[in-house]
Amino acid sequence: MATAGLQHTSDGTDAGFMADVVEASMTQPVIVDFWAPWCGPCRTLSPILEKAVEAKKGAVKLVKINTEEHNAYASQLGVRSIPAVYAFHKGRPVDGFMGALPESQVTSFIERLLGGTDNAQVIAEALGQAEAASQSGDIALAAEIYAAILQEEPENVPAIAGLARCYLANGDTDRATATLEMVPEARKNDSIVKGVRLAIEMAAEAPAPTELDAALSAVSASPGDHAKRFELAEQYAAAGRYKDAVDHLLIILSAKLGWEEGKAKDKLLKVFEAAGPTDPVTVEGRRRLASLMFA
């Protein structure tokens, strides 16, 4: 489906996803349309999306990704059927839908994304403040903001996921799990929810400090042993030390990109999912992975 002649619609790739979607969404909302040439509903939805986006004259951008040629980020986002549409804002997915919707619903989706009410704008700003607090290590402040958002919007999925992450950061997996129960049934498979759920599952396998020390010593003694390094990365991930896990997995991938039939790469993508799409560890790690894959 050609995008020639469209000012605010472009074709996307896995290699350009970080720049065209994640980074671009820091200045304007970006809608991603995952489609395939064989998909009939995709051909129905595509012109509706293009028309609605172009009508906003640059307030929102549309990136179309052919999953037959570029499937990495579709898989990462948990896309199981197409068409699948995700909206990104401030570097993270904030809304989405699957299937071909009529024009009126697509227009409403975009209006909601653009924050058609003052309250929507206030909530969006509060979510940004909470995420910034969390990433700076002020978990208490982040939790307070997320809780305040949920007082206004009890089913706000980013706030629910964010609050669950705050509990997880404090080692309270029970409350993190209970918080995720607040997610509406229709949104339980959203990527941000699945990421927190994965982080909780990883935390259940957290090693004792002595085990981690032993694994680190084993790698120090045999730095070329990828199996031992992979085991160390797994333990770091389970302990919530995502940056350390990513660093060691990338060492393996830089030596052998297809090590153990993609085992290290698959684990790396799981760590990105557990850390969250906008966590600095994920953003920087994806850049480093892309440099290895597309060099």
Which topology of the largest domain does CATH recognise?
Glutaredoxin
Largest sheet: 5 strands, mixed
Helix content: 55-70%
What order do the strands of the largest sheet run in, or round the barrel if closed?
1-3-2-4-5
Q: Helix tally?
A: 14
Structural category: alpha/beta
β content, as a range?
5-15%
**CATH architectural category of the largest domain:** 3-Layer(aba) Sandwich
CATH superfamily membership of the largest domain, which one?
Answer: Glutaredoxin
The pLDDT mean sits at 90
What is the succession of H and E elements? EHEHEHEEHHHHHHHHHHH
Radius of gyration: 20 Å
Please mark out the parts with pLDDT under 50 across 5 or more consecutive residues, or reply none: none
Shape descriptor: globular
> What is the total tally of β strands?
5
Architecture overview:
With 295 residues, the chain is of the alpha/beta class. It folds into three domains: 9-113, 3-Layer(aba) Sandwich (Glutaredoxin); 118-203, Serine Threonine Protein Phosphatase 5, Tetratricopeptide repeat (Alpha Horseshoe); 209-293, Tetratricopeptide repeat domain (Serine Threonine Protein Phosphatase 5, Tetratricopeptide repeat, Alpha Horseshoe), CATH 1.25.40. Helix content is 59%, strand content 9%. It is built from 14 helices and five strands. The protein has a five-stranded mixed β-sheet, with helices on both faces. Helix 5 runs parallel beside helix 7 (157-169) and helix 6 (139-152) runs antiparallel to helix 7. The longest helix has 18 residues, at 118-135. The model has no long low-confidence stretch (mean pLDDT 90).
